[in-house]
Amino acid sequence: MLPAEQLSPAPNGKPLSLLEGIRVLDLTTSIAGPYASLLLADFGAEVVKIERPGRGDDARAWGPPFLDGESLWFLSVNRNKHSVTLDYAQSAGLDVLHSLVKVADVIIVNQVGKSQKKLGIDYARLSEINPRLVHVSITGFGLDGAKKDQPCYDLIAEGYSGVMDLTGASPESEPQKVGTPAADLLSGSDAAMAVLAALLDRSRTGNGHEIDIAMVESMTRFMTPRIVPYLGSGELSRRSGGTDSVIAIYQTFHTADHPITLGLGNDAIWKRFCDVVGRPDMAQDPRFADNAGRRAARSEIVRELQKMLLEKPSSYWLDAFASARIPSGPINRLDQVVTDPTLTERGLFYATRRNGVAVPQVGLGIRFNGNFNTHRKDPPRLGEDTRQAFHTWLGWDDDAIQKLDDAGLL
After folding, report:
1. CA distance 205 to 207
2. CA distances (Å), 210 to each of 26, 79, 110, 148, in order?
3. pLDDT confidence of residue 314
4. What is the tens place of the pLDDT at every residue in 98-149?
5. DSSP assignment of 26-78
6. How far apart, in Å, are the Cα atoms of 201 and each of 132, 204, 339?
7. Residue 115 CB: number of other CB atoms within 10 A?
8. Count of C-beta atoms within a 10 Å radius of residue 379
9. How far apart are CA 24 and CA 31, in angstroms?
10. Where do the H-state alpha helices sit in 222-375?
11. Is 184 a catalytic residue?
12. pLDDT band for position 242 (50/70/90)?
């Protein structure tokens, strides 16, 4: 049995509708742009996903693994959307796209600026059609600068940002990519956040906006707590397996069976920790009275703590630390993540049924007045909503849509 078969169904009740009435055109592929439109769709926006006839979003081909003929990467970021196939590289198809733009509130693209202009989907062109339009570009390096026309993926953005240089066991070890497409998800989140701000401003002023999201900048901003200390001190952090935090004791430790995380972020937590592990003498040692002192003696303290923690299993320590309100936790594998009661009790994971197959999803993880239900529609098959979208957005009849199909535009 697949793990998805064991998930609970989608939450009951009316889905979130905070963006009800907002129409979004999503021309993007892969992860960053689709993640941005996923967030907007979860908030209640109506998202029409414009895809290339016959091929669709690049992520549809990313696999294995596949489920019911669909890439699981694609399924992870495309719920609540309507798939429309349209070849807008042809002039007649572009006219159709521009008709959709007239009635849209937001459009999201991930082509570089030069390609946007060539295709007729840049802000200058589309704002003439719809002055109230919020136009979002998600590119690797932004719409200006020396690298504005260069392609980019998450991996490249992570390398630029410094996160790969600081991820790994030691300065001698190889730099490591983050274990999820961090730059994609961060830039997608930035795009959705910027759309919300632009829509709020438009409600006051009536003005549209051009939003320029650069993946390398979103990922680099993620490194702010590392970059600012370097700029202000000249101290260059290096790969250390996460043991060089400004907090003295903030790292992983081995226990008698499984490793755990432990963060002793202030003096009160430090004292409670010392009581739990039976070392009140360490709490009373003036050398360890504050974080600066504990940082100076970090190696000595870590050696002592590691010896003690190896004496008992992780479950013992995690229970004891939880009782004393000491920040700590397991290091879960993915199979443990999706069954961890801390995450499952709030309904973060669920599955819907399509063709009798359980389609797994990770929920929004944000609640409004206790409501966390976002699911309105399964991730779409390629082009399954083409006719419906033209009916509802443009009021076109079947004959008009059939002509587009006959012309090879759909």
Report:
1. 5
2. 15, 26, 13, 16
3. 97
4. 999 999 999 999 999 999 999 999 999 999 999 999 999 999 999 999 999 9
5. E---TTHHHHHHHHHHHTT-EEEEEE-TTT--GGGG--S-EETTEEHHHHHT-
6. 11, 5, 42
7. 15
8. 24
9. 17
10. 224-233, 267-276, 280-284, 291-296, 298-309, 314-323, 334-337, 341-344
11. yes
12. confident
| Cβ atoms 351, 363 nearer than 8 A | no
Q: Residue 12 above 90 pLDDT?
A: no
Predicted local confidence at residue 399, as pLDDT: 96
Whole-number Å distance between alpha carbons of 135 and 285:
59
Going by pLDDT thresholds of 50, 70 and 90, the confidence category of residue 407 is very high
Phi, psi dihedrals of residue 264, rounded to the nearest 5°: -100, 80
The active-site residue out of 42, 57, 122, 184 is 184
Name the amino acid, one letter, at 272: R
With tokens 């003929």, the residue in question is 69
Could you give the maximum distance between any two Cα atoms of the chain, in Å? 84
Crossing angle (nearest 10°) for helices 32-42 and 182-205? 50
User: In this structure, what token pair is assigned to residue 346?
Assistant: 């709030």
State the Cα–Cα distance between residues 16 and 42, nearest whole angstrom.
7
Quick one: three-class SS letters along 96-149?
HHHHHHHCCCEEEECCCHHHHHHHCCCHHHHHHHCCCCEEEEEECCCCCCCCCC
Identify residue 409 by its one-letter amino acid code.
Answer: L
Structural domains in the chain, CATH included, are 3-222+348-406 (3.40.50.10540), 249-337 (3.30.1540.10)
The alpha helices in 130-241, defined as continuous H runs, are 154-161, 182-205, 215-221, 224-233
Cα distance between residue 125 and residue 105, in whole Å: 15
- pLDDT of 281 higher than 90: yes
Tokens 């490194």 found at: 223
* Contact (Cβ atoms closer than 8 angstroms) between residue 244 and residue 250: no
- Give the residue from 244, 232, 259, 77 showing the smallest Cα distance to 168: 244
Give pLDDT, residue 241: 85
* Residue owning tokens 């979004």: 24
Write the pLDDT tens digit of every residue in 199-231. 999 999 999 999 999 999 999 999 999 999 999
81 within 8 A of 379, measured Cβ to Cβ: yes
